[in-house]
Amino acid sequence: MVTYEQLGEMYDAEVVDQDGHKVGGMDQVYLDNGTGNPAWVSIRAGWFGGRKILCPVSNATIQGGRIQVPYPLAMIKDAPDIPCDGHLTEDEEEQLYDYYSVDQGPAPSA
Question: Which residue range or ranges hold the PRC-barrel domain (predicted)?
């Protein structure tokens, strides 16, 4: 579980999939409203980081400037297109929870 104390390590980190393949650079952290712990990250992916993808980090590990998430690269790249422009709506959250098969918790916010 990624904690609030690890936030500093997350900035400018590279996000990699479950097998260590590069997904992209970490863009923004979304915190859980209830716990204050990191719940989601937006990832800059594609040419020049043109697309931003949301991925849960509740089961991620942080080490050596990398955030390793427990999902395959193809799944992350095919995630729903959710605008990474602030607070997630309940509908957006539900889409992401369903897609990644994550148990729903308190709503994260930017």
Answer: 9-72
